[in-house]
Amino acid sequence: MGDSHQTNTAADSTVQIQSANDALLERVEEQITLDTFDPSDLQTLQQLVEGLGDPRGLIRLRFAETLGEIGEPATPLLTEALAHHSNVVLRRAAAKTLTIIGDPSAVPTLLHAFLTDGDTVVRSSSAGALARTGEAAVPALLEILASSEQSEDIKGHAAWALAFIGSEAAEHLYKALNSDSIDVRCAVIGRSPMLPRNNPTKNLAAS
Cβ of 35: how many Cβ atoms within 10 Å? Predict the structure, then answer.
């Protein structure tokens, strides 16, 4: 009897949270459409970031797209969530939302998540977000390639990010041709504008 009551209570709580998330999305999407949304409203921004932890994939995607439309005002709360939130689903979605925004100020947090987060999806999504920030991420990515302490998996993601950045990284890559690190030189030589540009935001709803 007790277990059944607890199960019902948890289910009711989940329904309430989902209903609140649905209402929040509807309200903010309408405000964005009417150009009345206040990007300095930190309480609403925080609620939107928490919505990235919704158990419904399509709803997470809507939250990510909404935050993407809001853009850089959401970056500090997204980087805070990526760095410290206990919900791995939310950290994954935060990294992918930062990919949509492409704010260079997120590079330090994205780099830390890429190198240290215990979840492989968070790490790969952070690499995707680094790629979208463009030139701002290039020096750190080259340092990763030159490091003897990083795994081949991490170096592979860093090389992919450099390839995605493409022409924005050209000046840095040209200088890196003279690097003492063979990994750096190989990544530079192997970088080609013909490499496929996979979309780093793909599969947000499924993660």
Answer: 6
CB contact burial 139-149 (16+ within 10 A = b; e otherwise): ebbbebbbbee
Q: Note the pLDDT tens digit of each residue in 92-113.
A: 999 999 999 999 999 999 999 9
Range(s) of the domain holding residue 19: 2-190
Whether 156 has a pLDDT exceeding 80, the answer reads yes
Question: CA dist 180 to 1, 31, 147, 184, 186, Å?
Answer: 69, 53, 11, 8, 11
For 61, what's the count of Cα atoms within 13 Å in the CB-facing half-sphere?
A: 10
**Diameter over CA atoms, the chain:** 71
CA distance 160 to 114: 13
Q: Which tokens belong to 177?
A: 């041709």
Does residue 98 sit within a domain? Answer: yes
For 17, the token pair is 């949270």
* Domain count within the chain: 1
pTM, full prediction: 0.82
The answer to whether residue 37 sits within a structural domain is: yes
- Angle formed at CA 135 by CA 133 and CA 140, multiple of 5 degrees: 90
**CA–CA distances in Å: residue 84 to residues 35, 71, 78:** 32, 21, 10
Q: Strand ranges (DSSP E) for the chain?
A: none
- Calculate what percentage of the chain has a pLDDT beyond 70: 80
In-domain check, residue 76:
yes
- 179: its two tokens: 């690097």
